[in-house]
User: Which sequence fits this backbone?
């Protein structure tokens, strides 16, 4: 079944202690859509400006991503710049230039309304709501977010939580949202806000799923070298939802393996700047790493 992905479609300028990479293909929806495309057909909903390079459109196409919902409008593509510290975990935002995002309304083309799986990647909660308003009874809705929306759009985000099946956030965001240090307790509090499934991402320490059938811990794939973790969270959720959409049976039956698939795609994401590595990966490389990860946690 197919997955509708809405989120940011961006140009990212990423600085690490070793190098500087201006205007790479980035954005939450780009990472999530490419990640999901390894498992299921994907429809991307977003906006770019006239400056968006054709080669990036080709990259989406190479992954078979449906671009009917990608608006190209007058103005500049959303630009985000960030800098990592030597440990490659701490990140500082240097610039956020909204460009065409400032006036973006995610209007869905005709056939998109019936897409069974909806991935609301990181974007303003009001826009995530707007997409849901246009959907006809999707089978499964997952939302991701970032600290910015907890700070400036909390009422919208809380309303959104009542409309989604699963909510994905990182550990610091879970603490901020619930005022609770312990992630297990935080997840329980988030269930009370609406979502049946809560997934807390913990960066290089993997992710925890809290669901009606209990907890599940997905490790991160142990990498020797992290080149650029930008978009790892988006790749994780993209891989997860892409996998779920590819499987028959209940969500509960497939969530655990889905989290491992997400973890593996995220690990590839970290091995190159922006989407460079992810766009060179094949399904068989993903499957091999899933198997390896399975072996690493078997006891
Ligand atoms: P992550 O590393 O998972 O936090 O995601 C990084 C991606 O988020 C980058 O590709 C950015 O383009 C995108 N991003 C950064 N700030 C925002 C924002 N305010 N709204 C939407 N996307 C953003």
Assistant:
């Amino acid at each position: 079944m197919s997955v509708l992905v809405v989120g940011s479609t961006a140009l990212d300028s990423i600085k690490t202690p070793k190098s500087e990479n201006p205007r790479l293909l980035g954005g939450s929806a780009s990472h999530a859509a490419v990640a999901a495309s390894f498992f299921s057909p994907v429809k991307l909903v977003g906006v770019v400006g006239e400056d968006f390079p054709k080669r990036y459109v080709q990259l989406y196409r190479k992954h078979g991503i449906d671009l009917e919902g990608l608006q190209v409008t007058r103005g500049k593509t959303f630009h985000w710049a960030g800098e990592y510290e030597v440990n490659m975990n701490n990140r500082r935002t240097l610039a956020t230039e909204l460009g065409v995002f400032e006036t973006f309304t995610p209007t869905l083309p005709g056939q998109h309304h019936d897409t069974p799986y909806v991935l609301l990647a990181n974007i303003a909660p009001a826009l995530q709501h707007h997409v849901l308003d246009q959907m006809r009874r999707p089978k499964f809705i997952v939302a991701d977010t970032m600290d910015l929306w907890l700070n400036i759009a909390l009422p919208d985000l809380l309303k959104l939580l009542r409309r989604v099946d699963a909510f994905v956030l990182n550990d610091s965001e879970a603490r901020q949202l619930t005022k609770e240090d312990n992630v297990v307790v935080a997840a329980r509090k988030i269930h009370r806000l609406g979502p049946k499934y809560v997934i807390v991402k913990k960066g290089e320490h993997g992710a925890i799923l809290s669901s009606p059938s209990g907890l599940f811990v997905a490790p991160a794939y142990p990498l020797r070298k992290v080149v650029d973790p930008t978009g790892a969270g988006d790749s994780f959720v993209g891989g997860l939802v892409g996998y779920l959409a590819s499987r028959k049976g209940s969500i509960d039956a497939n969530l655990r393996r889905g989290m491992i698939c997400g973890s593996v795609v995220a690990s590839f994401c970290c091995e190159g700047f922006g989407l460079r590595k992810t766009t060179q990966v094949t399904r068989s490389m993903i499957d091999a790493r899933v198997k390896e990860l399975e072996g690493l946690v078997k006891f």
About this structure: The longest strand covers residues 42-49. Residues 8, 10, 12, 26-28, 80, 96, 122-123, 148, 230-234 surround adenosine monophosphate (CB under 6 Å).
